[in-house]
Amino acid sequence: MFGFGQAIGIDLGTATVLVHVRGKGIVLREPSVVAIDRNTGEAVSVGEEARRMLGKTPGNIVAIRPLKDGVISDYSVTEKMLKYFIRKVCGRFIIAPTIMVCVPSGVTEVEKKAVIDAATQAGAKKVYLIEEPIAAAIGAGIDINKACGSMVVDMGGGTTDIAVISLGGAVVSTSIKVAGNKFDEYIIKYIKKKYNVIIGDRTAEDLKINIGCVYPRMQRLEMQVRGRHLGSGLPVNINVNSDDILEALREPVSQVIEAVVSVLERTPPELAADISDRGIYMTGGGCLVHGLDKLIQEKTKINVMIAEESVSCVALGTGKALENEEMLAQLDAKRKIPQY
To answer: Which residue among 60, 282, 294, 308 is buried most deeply as judged by most CB within 10 Å?
Structure first.
């Protein structure tokens, strides 16, 4: 049962949803996938069980990701997913909880309202929104209230959010729709072009995790995968190596580097000097692709550090922000975040 004053932080990611409950820490980490029955419109399964259905469902069931590029693409399905996860975390509650949800920097007011409405319909008493790089910085242990520049690159599934933070807010920020999922798409395209074989999203993700790199490896890795040959239409096994993935990811990674450099170019000189001294912090699951930190460091000439528990940083930061009454009071007073 929820007691009085319960608070839930949700990292509503394109690929994964993480839920933080005050006093308990991160209690849920599941894929943001919902399997829907086309005939009834009801959710058949949510999370990991639904992810296993991707690409394998019969005609009357469709497994979908209700978020695309960090924002809600299917409102009703997102509402069902949120309701399921909130109920799974806390059961039936007497008093509706306060919920804080992360959103990419630069989302529109319409997109913010969609998140707030979905969380409210899922059972929230009050909904706060927090920008992902701010939450990521808090989760990485950075004191964002100091008069000192800190740079965070948060790469999730749908977006890469980059921000220079000082005195509790983002001074310069950008959000690009190039992240983990886009990397998977480029791997699929490359395998199709080079080997004339179609592979699925899950296979591409496995390649990225196991042998993927964006900076040359000391030792070349190889992995066997199964796909469908475009010529014969039959299943085939092919051996893919890490050099293939390096080539496949060259274009999307260059877009990430370009965005990082663009933010640095727009950063005030005093804050840029702080970043040069303190380094760039990387968070999110996408930053774990081998060599990404080395590549950014090489291009910017600034030390790059991957945060501890990088995958969980945004959710942890959301939880900490909810515990900070002063921060919540400031959000309410300044009305930076709409309240419904």
So the answer is: 282
Q: CA 129 to CA 9: how far, in whole Å?
A: 10
% of the chain surpassing 90 pLDDT: 54
* Same-domain check for residues 168 and 191: yes
How far is residue 94's CA from residue 255's CA, in Å, rounded to a whole number?
47
Sign of the dihedral defined by the CA atoms of residues 104, 109, 115, 120, in that order: positive
d(CA 26, CA 35): 24
Question: 156 and 301: one domain?
Answer: yes
Angle at 294 between CA 293 and CA 296, to 5 degrees: 65
First to last CA, the chain: 24
Indicate whether 326 and 180 sit together in one domain: no
DSSP state of 153: E
Q: What is the pLDDT of residues 6-65, one digit of tens each?
A: 789 999 888 899 999 988 889 999 999 998 888 888 888 898 888 887 777 777 888 888
Burial 175-185 (b: 16+ CB within 10 A, else e): bbbbbbbbbbe
pLDDT at 4: 44
163 sits in which H/E element: strand 160-166
CA distances from 212 to 148, 298, 315 (A): 35, 19, 25
Asked if residue 317 and residue 300 are part of one domain, the reply reads no
Measured torsion, CA atoms of residues 294, 300, 301, 305, in degrees rounded to the nearest 10: -50
- For 262, the token pair is 């663009």
What value does the mean pLDDT take over residues 282-309?
Answer: 94
Q: Give every CB contact of residue 316 below 8 A, 6+ residues apart in sequence.
A: 20, 25, 26, 138, 139, 309
Cβ atoms of residues 75 and 119 within 8 Å: no
298 shares its domain with 181: yes
208-221 pLDDT per residue, tens = 999 999 999 999 99
Total domains in the fold of the chain: 2
3-class SS at 17?
strand
